[in-house]
Design a protein that fits this description.
The complex is a heterodimer of chains A (380) and B (226). With 380 residues, chain A is an alpha+beta fold. Chain A has eight helices and 21 strands. Chain A has helices spanning 56-64, 112-121, 132-139, 154-166, 184-200, 212-218, 236-240, 353-359; strands spanning 21-28, 33-40, 45-49, 71-76, 79-83, 88-89, 97-100, 172-176, 205-209, 221-226, 229-235, 254-265, 270-274, 281-285, 294-300, 304-307, 318-329, 335-342, 345-352, 366-371, 375-376. In chain A, strands 7-8-9-3-10-11 form a six-stranded mixed β-sheet, sandwiched between helices. Chain A has a five-stranded antiparallel β-sheet with strand order 2-1-4-5-6, with helices on one face. Chain A is globular. Chain B has a single domain, classed as MetI-like fold, CATH 1.10.3720.10. Chain B has eleven helices and no strands. The N and C termini of chain B lie far apart (49 Å). The chains are: A alpha+beta (380), B mainly alpha (226).
Chain lengths: 380, 226
């Protein structure tokens, strides 16, 4: 199965620049403190990523007004929803947010249609920006309208939950691990719809997840939460490559690259994709996709090796001209992570310290990156 | 004719009392149950215990205190007198007040259980869908708690029909005013009129059986929600 991305161009905000969502929350419980200060872009998907207990959901609940932080400030695209210094707190039901709950949280006593209409009816007609039919079509739930939520699968419930939230014409969509309660098959059923939201909606989406692949696949902006604090926040690709946070996703450093399909070789089952702007091509084993299709691929640091010459007789398919940006030492002594520029994108290579010294790697040095494995995100 | 005119009057009065008590109890019990189900206050346990008192106290005790407080020198009595209503002892209104106290836990507890079972999640969903607290209560909580309301109403009604001690203490035995079916049975037995007592007592047994049967079959069909 493949999950091509329909990506639109999101203006990438610069790190530390003024975002269009400003949020400061401080929540103190006996055993947990959430203390965050966030600037998020006013468009695109911002992922709140962290382990369970890191404060992701608490943070999201503060955005929605479901929890009232003792100290807080929240401004979304010019509208202030909380300012504890002024004693201002807009209650949840007066905030234009759409909230998708972890377990869908549909009303058990209402049919799917009545669930969808519940929020829609409460929005003045003049403020509605999406019709019931549109939301139904977007989430593919037309055949479910007459059923009761109890008769739906987890994936179907979640899609209804998303449509229900969209029908309130929110200014911001909040998703609390919408896939966490689903098995792999149901995840694959819902993910394409999430990607459609991403490409077709103008509103900012805040996506809480502890799944590296979901985040890498859907997010434009990444916020890392640890013990109720923000340990990093920035555009996804840059943040994944930040030298001071090499193991954003813990097991392995990886880079995420956007590319376009150019061709498919049926004889060898290889798909060729091109990095925009540089003409550099990558090949990966995959079924055919239409040329021009935008895709997002993941390249793990451990699958990239470096060579001074363009190897002529190698089994590695992808040899890319690269330039050394910088490097960091990883915790174990034997390896070094080298960040290289390939066209407009950056990759990480995990090589041994021995090779690093033997190749005498320098900043700005030109060399070749051999990429042993490229995976289309979500293809797992 | 198995039932005398006085018996019929007692049965009618009983039904009237039970129906009015049930309506009042749903109105009073709902906010109490809602508060008990939601609050984190340290008053939750004491208030909950007070509501449950009639479950364990002999009805004569409740009746005694109500008699004293509704009497000419009691708190309620003073109040009703100053409002020009006289005292409520040995009146239908007094009986109604006594019944409300007596059956309160039978209404509050099923409602509280129903509200607790619903939890916060549907209310939070309603809030994010722009429903204010009242709106959410009527459109989400009431329908979801419907089985709880049915149980509460049936138990409140049936328990009021079966009340005896409180009635005797504060209502006495005034035909057409405070003479309810259970008291009428007592009268028949006092006067050695066992045949008449049988008709009323048997009727009460049948009524209670039907009520409980309805309650239990209702409960098993509610499983559809789960």
């Amino acid at each position: 199965m493949i999950w091509p991305l329909q990506r639109r161009n999101v203006p990438t905000p610069t790190l530390g620049g003024a975002g269009e969502i400003q949020a400061r929350f401080k929540v103190e419980h006996a055993d947990f403190t959430l203390d965050v200060d966030l600037n998020l872009p006013g468009r695109g998907v911002s992922a709140l990523f962290g382990h369970s207990g890191s404060g992701k959901t608490s943070c999201l609940r503060c955005f929605a007004g479901l929890d009232r932080p003792s100290e807080g400030y929240l401004q979304v695209n010019g509208e202030v929803w909380q300012d504890s210094a002024q004693g201002l707190f807009v209650p949840a039901h007066k905030r234009a947010v759409g909230y998708v709950f972890q377990g869908a949280n549909l009303f058990a006593h209402l049919s799917v249609r009545r669930n969808l209409e519940y929020g829609l009816k409460r929005i003045p007609a003049a403020q509605r920006r999406i019709a019931l039919e549109q939301a139904v079509e977007l989430l593919g739930i037309g055949h479910l309208l007459q059923r009761l939520p109890g008769k739906l699968s987890g994936g179907e419930q979640q899609r209804v939950g998303i449509a229900r939230a969209l029908l309130t014409s929110p200014r911001m969509l909040l998703l609390d691990e919408p896939l966490a309660a689903l098995d792999l098959k149901r995840k694959q059923e819902v993910l394409p719809y999430l990607e459609r939201l991403h490409s077709e909606l103008q509103m900012p989406i805040i996506y809480v997840s502890h799944s590296p692949d979901e985040v890498a696949r859907l997010a434009d902006h990444l916020v890392l939460l640890e013990d109720g604090k923000v340990s990093a926040s920035g555009p996804l690709k840059e943040t994944l490559l930040r030298a001071d946070l090499p193991f954003v996703f813990e097991e392995d450093a990886e880079a995420v690259v956007d590319a376009q399909v150019t061709a498919h070789d049926p004889a060898y089952g290889l798909l060729a994709v091109q990095l925009p702007g540089s003409g550099i091509s990558l090949q990966l084993p995959h079924g055919p996709l239409p040329p021009g299709q935008s895709v997002r691929v993941k390249i793990k640091a451990r699958d990239v090796s470096l060579s001074l010459q363009q190897a002529q007789h190698s089994s590695v398919l992808n040899l890319l001209p690269a330039r050394v940006v910088d490097w960091i030492n990883v915790a174990e002594q034997a390896h070094v992570l080298v960040r290289v520029q390939v066209g407009r994108e950056q990759l990480m290579a995990r090589i041994t310290r021995y090779s690093f010294d033997r190749l005498n790697i320098q900043r700005e040095q030109s060399l070749w990156a051999q990429v042993k494995s490229v995976s289309l995100l979500g293809a797992s | 004719m198995p039932l005398t005119e006085a018996d019929f009057a007692a049965v009618l009065l009983t039904l009237e009392l039970a129906a009015l008590t049930t309506v009042l109890l749903l109105l009073i019990g709902t906010p109490i149950a809602w508060w008990l189900a939601r609050t984190g206050s340290r008053w939750k346990q004491p208030i909950g215990a007070i509501v449950a008192l009639p479950l364990v106290l002999p009805p004569t005790v409740i009746g005694f205190y109500l008699l004293v407080s509704m009497g000419p020198h009691g708190v309620i009595g003073q109040l009703t007198q100053s409002l020009g209503l006289g005292t409520l002892t040995f009146t239908f209104t007094g009986l109604l007040i006594g019944s409300v106290f007596y059956s309160l836990p039978f209404v509050v507890q099923p409602l509280q259980n129903a509200f607790e079972a619903i939890g916060r999640a549907p209310l939070e969903a309603a809030a994010t869908l722009r429903a204010g607290p009242w709106d959410a209560f009527f459109t989400v909580v009431l329908p979801l708690a419907k089985p709880g309301f049915v149980t509460a109403a049936i138990l409140g009604f049936a328990h009021t029909v079966g009340e005896f001690g409180v009635v005797l203490m504060i209502g006495g035995n005034i035909p057409g005013k405070t003479q309810v079916a259970s008291v009428q049975i007592y009268n028949h037995v006092e006067t050695m009129n066992y045949a008449q007592a049988h008709w009323l007592a048997g009727g009460m047994v049948l009524f209670s059986f039907i009520v409980l049967l309805a309650l239990y079959s209702g409960r098993s069909s509610q499983r559809v929600w789960q």
